[in-house]
């Protein structure tokens, strides 16, 4: 219903309900403005638990409240930050519940290159303060990686340039993770690609890269802005695989360039940094092989010359062997006489020994040995008897100690001691159970005293929304089902209670907006 002025001065003014006035204001506001673009500086920003985004856009005199619903937040190319100069596109609407109007922000873009550069410097300073640009945390690139992971667009000229350069220099296995290299989804896809390559297990069905290249062709700062997002910089800093940044041309700079382990001016240069030239390596190997052969030949020649020099300092072999040969000839002439003398001496000793071995002498010695053996045998019998007697006495002593009556007496004594211990244990168990019951009773009484049910008995109530306890009016308005618990039971508000449900796009009351 449209509002009209009184047609006649002094006449009766028409009466409108509050809802009619609020509805007319909302329709007028939405019809007059519709979809608009607003430029200003972002004030405070609040991300509600429900997922909605609330923020202010202001200039030097006024403030415009903006709301982005949870389903619209994912489509924003730029998440507003306090102090950022932005251009907000959306629809004007009004909320009669609080007599407020706001802008339903559907799209947020940064206002101009200057604002982007200011945001870039701000993020750069924050990340540098955290130490993400420090030289000591940068990893060394592998000299000749087996597998190279490339994060880029699969349809652009960048991937073709990289593959062509790798094929010319040193062919390697290449894994391409396709991503969007500009637009609102660029930052998230690049960050997930870096994390995905790092999540591959070494030696798995899909090989884990030894080196990563994040590449994109040149463009404006708006086109390259996805590589200035904080999520990309942190993903590159957390990468365990060495990473080369090859975004844009020589003059383009992104936050990824500062965090990466190596920056390449172009994607083609990144391929040149990643692998050496195969033909140069082969030429170097051949050069080293030739130098090794020459070194071995020169070493052998030097040792031959040294051997010849040393040989000239030695005497003739015949001169060295001649003295030993003369001594050998002299010993050979003395050997027959020495052998004859030794044989004669041994024959004399054998004759003397044969004379001492007469039969009477051998018989006498045998009789002496027999008498000595008989004496030892006569002494052995009594010794054995004494040993047996001693063993029998020890056995009798043990038998005396092991009588049944003694064992039964010891068993009865131990049984009485065990019964006494059982009685003591039973008394201790009863006393301990009594103590534990008393302690449990006191704790139960304390629990009843501290329980919220005692508070309910004093006239209070507990409000639950969708099964969870709510403590604020905004949470109660967002709940689909309310339940109130009193001291004597629970109830749900009846259909007759005055409740008004609002649509999902209607902003909450002032207390829940920020």
From TrEMBL:
<dbReference type="InterPro" id="IPR003753">
    <property type="entry name" value="Exonuc_VII_L"/>
</dbReference>
<keyword id="KW-0540">Nuclease</keyword>
<dbReference type="Pfam" id="PF02601">
    <property type="entry name" value="Exonuc_VII_L"/>
</dbReference>
<dbReference type="GO" id="GO:0005737">
    <property type="term" value="C:cytoplasm"/>
</dbReference>
<feature type="region of interest" description="Disordered">
    <location>
        <begin position="487"/>
        <end position="514"/>
    </location>
</feature>
<feature type="domain" description="OB-fold nucleic acid binding">
    <location>
        <begin position="16"/>
        <end position="108"/>
    </location>
</feature>
<feature type="domain" description="Exonuclease VII large subunit C-terminal">
    <location>
        <begin position="132"/>
        <end position="402"/>
    </location>
</feature>
<comment type="similarity">
    <text>Belongs to the XseA family.</text>
</comment>
<dbReference type="GO" id="GO:0008855">
    <property type="term" value="F:exodeoxyribonuclease VII activity"/>
</dbReference>
<keyword id="KW-0269">Exonuclease</keyword>
<dbReference type="GO" id="GO:0009318">
    <property type="term" value="C:exodeoxyribonuclease VII complex"/>
</dbReference>
<dbReference type="GO" id="GO:0006308">
    <property type="term" value="P:DNA catabolic process"/>
</dbReference>
<dbReference type="InterPro" id="IPR025824">
    <property type="entry name" value="OB-fold_nuc-bd_dom"/>
</dbReference>
<dbReference type="Pfam" id="PF13742">
    <property type="entry name" value="tRNA_anti_2"/>
</dbReference>
<dbReference type="GO" id="GO:0003676">
    <property type="term" value="F:nucleic acid binding"/>
</dbReference>
<comment type="function">
    <text>Bidirectionally degrades single-stranded DNA into large acid-insoluble oligonucleotides, which are then degraded further into small acid-soluble oligonucleotides.</text>
</comment>
<comment type="subunit">
    <text>Heterooligomer composed of large and small subunits.</text>
</comment>
<keyword id="KW-0963">Cytoplasm</keyword>
<keyword id="KW-0378">Hydrolase</keyword>
<protein>
    <recommendedName>
        <fullName>Exodeoxyribonuclease 7 large subunit</fullName>
        <ecNumber>3.1.11.6</ecNumber>
    </recommendedName>
</protein>
<dbReference type="InterPro" id="IPR020579">
    <property type="entry name" value="Exonuc_VII_lsu_C"/>
</dbReference>
